[in-house]
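Input sequence (496 aa), recorded before submission:
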Amino acid sequence: MEPITSRTQQETQALPDFVLRQFDRQSAEYDHLQLYRILQTGIRHGRLPAGLKLPPTRVLAQALGIARNTVVHVYEQLALEGYVEAGVGRGTYVTDLARRPVKAAKAAVADRDEPLSRRGQALIEHAGAARLQWGAFTPGVPEVRMFPVRIWNSLQSRVWRHAAPAQLSYATGAGDADLRQAVAEYVQGTRGVACTAEQVVITSGTQQSLLLVAQLLADPGDTAWLEEPGYWGARSVFRAMGLKLLPIGLDGEGLAPTPQQRRSAPRLMFVSPAHQYPVGALMSQRRRRQLLDYAAAHGSWVVEDDYDSEFRYGSRPLPALQGLDEHHRVIYLGTFSKTLFPSLRVAYAVLPPDLAEGFARSLNELFREGNSMQQAVLARFLAEGHYATHIRRMRAVYSARHDALIHAIRRQFGTQLQVLGGAAGLHVVLELPRRVNDADVARDAQRAGVTTRPLSMYYMKKPAAASGLLLGYGTVREEEIEPSFDTMATALRRHL
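Predicted structure, C-alpha cell format:
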C-alpha cells in the first residue's frame, strides 16, 4: 500500500472523523456492509451534511485500509438510493434530502424498515468474535489434534447401541443426569465448589449460560459490572439484553470498584477470579471476601467465569469463589470448550439451589435443548477417568508451549517488553508501550500470516486502554513457536 501523501491527507479531511473512528477493520462485518451502514446512517441523521464532498474512492480506501472496489461499490449503492450525487469530474456529494421530498420520504420508510434493531446494530458494532480460530497465535483455542478420538468414538458407539427414544427427542430438564452428577463431583473435587448434581444445568456454551443469567436475573436498564479489561463475550450478551454496562478497573488484587462505583450496587457482577481474562490476574482472598460481602449486602449476583482453571503450571489455583459463598449469590460457569474441543458446545452453570429449577425450565422453554447423546458420551468420558487423563496430558503439553513462547519472547526482546498472565491458561499478554497502536500491530502480523488480538479491544473505555497483544499457544506445536514468533517480532519491530 502506497504511503498517504500530504495531498491525500488534505482530501481525507473532507470525511468527518466519526467515520474513521467507527470503521473497524477487526470487525466480523463485511467491509462493504460496514462502510455502507456508517455512511448511510450519517447521511440520514445529518452527521454528513448536505453538499459535503466525499473523498475520492482511492483516498477513502487507502485511509480505511480496504480495497478501492469496495468503496466504489458503496458509493454506487448510495447514489442508486439517492443519498449521494456523483458526476464525472465533479466528485461525490451528499444529497440534500430536505429538498428532495420523495427521496426523503423513502429515507424515512427505510429508517422504519431498518433490518436490524438498535440492539442488533450495537451488537454488530461492538462484536468481538474473531474470524480466524486456528493457528499461531490464536488465543483461547485448545489443541484439538491430540484429543483421544478413538476413546470418544468407542464410548459413542456404546451410547448409541443403548440409546433410548427419549434421548433422541427434545431434551427436558437440566441436562443428562449422569453428566450433571459427573460435573458436580468434578468441580467439588478440583475447584472446591459446594454443590449437588441438582444445582448443575448443562448448556450449549458459556454464551448461552450468560444469556440465561441476563434474562432471568436482570431486567433491561439494570447495571452489570464488568472487568476492565474483560471478556468481550459477556459484554455482548449483557448489551444485547439491554443492561447498562459499567467497566470496573483492576488492581493487584482483582476487581477494584471505586468508592463512587460502590455507592450504586449493580444487579450483576461478572468476574474471572482464578485467571482474569485477558490479563491473567489472580483475585486475592481478601478481595474475594469483600466482593461476596458486598453482593450479599446489596442483593447482587456474582457471575464467576472459571474458563481455564485446569491449566495452571507449577502451582495450584485458589479454590473457586463459589466455595466461599455462604449467602448463595454466586453463579459458577464452566465449559468443556477449552479442555476438550470448542465445537462440542457443552458447558455448565452451577446455581444456588433456589435458582436451578427456574433455569432448567427456562432453558427448555427458550432453546428446546437437544444434544442428549453427546452429553451421555461426555458423562462416560468423565466417569471412566478419560477426562482427568486428558487434562493431565494437555497440562504438560501447554506448560512446555508456554515456556517455549516465553523463551522466544525473551530471545527477541529481552526484558524490553513485559509478559502478563502468569504460568496458566492458554495465552499470555505481551505488554507494549502506550504509544504503540496494538490494532495496527495485529493487522500487520495477520498480513504476515500470524494471528494475535490487540489488548485494547478488551477495553470499553478506549482512551484509557493499555496496549498489548494476546498470544495464544494452545494451537501451536512447540517446535513451531520460535519461528512463528520470529515472524511476529518482525511485524512488531516496525511499531516500536
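Checked by second reader. The first strand starts at residue 53 and ends at 54.
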